[in-house]
């Protein structure tokens, strides 16, 4: 039987969705620094390294969807 996701995994999933939404809403290709700034403006308490880690796989997925 598989253990339920821990707190970090749940928070990562939630913040990954926020990254995707922020990136899609902007309609532009932002780097992890700009996305970090946007999350801070939204009231999220997240560090730059975490945004970079979560952004890597999301960036590749979104680029494939856009046809790059």
UniProtKB/TrEMBL annotation:
This is Integrase catalytic subunit. Residues 8-30 have a biased composition (Basic and acidic residues). It comes from the Bacteria. Residues 1-30 are annotated as: Disordered. Residues 12-56 form the HTH-like domain. InterPro entries: HTH-like_dom. It comes from Roseivivax marinus.
């Amino acid at each position: 039987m598989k253990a339920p996701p821990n707190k970090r995994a749940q928070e990562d999933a939630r913040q990954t969705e926020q990254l995707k939404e922020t990136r899609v809403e902007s309609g532009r290709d932002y780097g992890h620094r700009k996305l970090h700034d946007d999350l801070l403006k939204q009231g999220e308490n997240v560090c730059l390294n975490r945004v970079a880690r979560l952004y890597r796989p999301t960036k590749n997925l979104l680029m494939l969807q856009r046809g790059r």
